[in-house]
Amino acid sequence: MRIEETTIPGTFLIEPEPVSDERGVFYESMRSDELERHAGIVFQPRQINYSVSRRHTLRGIHSVSIPPGQAKFVTCVRGVLRDIVVDLRVGSPTFGRHRVTELDAASGRSVYVPEGVGHGFLALTDDACICYVVSSTYVPGTQIDINPFDPDLDLPWDCAGTPLLSDKDAKAQTLAEALAAGVLSPFDGAPDPSGITT
User: Fold this and answer.
1) pTM for the full model?
2) pLDDT tens across 130-146, in order?
3) Residues classed as catalytic
């Protein structure tokens, strides 16, 4: 597999190397040893989540406060998604900047999202399914939600129709409001004790 750091520090694009024959295709989606060897990340999955969405559903931008923090290994397992990560780490050289990746089941492409970086996606097909392999279990009250239409972020959702949002996402705070409230995590540019870049 190819593992390449994106323009957001600590965020990686993972592209599998498929093996095809008359039966179909096989590929390795995630290997913790390869993440550690290529990126210095010790990723220990604690929970696996799936989200199924109708076309034009927009979910995010979501993160988790540190502690407990939560890194995510994100893969589209059915359909096509426009995946966006936003650097929410105070002091990061790319604070407030984003990265867009198209994820689709056919390619098996994945994104590793480090702790403190926000994540969201737009479903480009009906019945799109995303898989989150995450480094911590769900802890109520630790979620950080940023409005996906925050004008200062100006995220390129490019939705062909009216997006479907939850009330929670539609009413989420802006990045400036989250910064003023002191809920965002600092950027230190180095691995934390578990080895996950923050």
Assistant:
1) 0.92
2) 999 999 999 999 999 99
3) 62, 132
